[in-house]
Fold this sequence. Notes:
Layout: H1 9-18, H2 32-41, H3 50-60, H4 64-68, H5 111-127, E1 137-146, H6 153-161, E2 168-179, E3 182-192, H7 198-206, E4 212-222
Antiparallel strand pairs: 1-3, 1-4, 2-3
Pfam families: Arc1p_N_like, EF-1_beta_acid, EF1_GNE
Organism: Papilio machaon
GO molecular function, one term: translation elongation factor activity
Amino acid sequence: xxxxxxxxxQGLNELNTFLADKSYISGYTPxxxxxxxxNEVGKAPAASLPHVLRWYNHIASxxxxxxxxxxxxxxxxxxxxxxxxxxxxxxxxEDDDDVDLFGSGDxxxxxxxxxxxxxxxxxxxxxxxxxxxxxxxxxxxxDVKPWDDExxxxxxxxxxxxxxMDGLLWGASKLVPVGYGINKLQIMCVIEDDKVSVDLxxxxxxxFEDFVxxxxxxxxxxx
Length: 223
């Protein structure tokens, strides 16, 4: 699927529909396609676009240096939409390492152009192989259940978001009906695996015992 200008409401809506059942723009891991669209979006979208907001917060959790190491991905932007340029060389001494990570051809590049770009990306990866490995992270969706339909859900979410840990980034949230007028809070977060324990995080949420009845893990994905 190709998108229009993601700086417009129409383009963002198309992107939101696309990400409804996908974690990334191209494939099953973050790629330069995610970086390209992330740069085009420019800022966190409105909560009315929950899938784009979830994806945006996830890509934002990587540093600029980490995003530069993402593998190549197929650009989803329609012809005519603004595109990003390849990262600049780190220094004059590394001019020979320059490579166009995104390419500048048409959306439907031919097989020869794809082969050449893959060869350049492989050469770039070989030269940069001494770089530190990406930090292991996980994307988690938590179901936080209240005691009853009289629980103040806005205050409950506010309390949950007060939890701060090194390596924890809160993302989008929404209320999901569970029956009898009761809603559960479904909230996304990204954690650095070496710094944040999921068990400890759920225990901290359950400490808000005036609001929280239980916490379940709705989704857990390594990224």
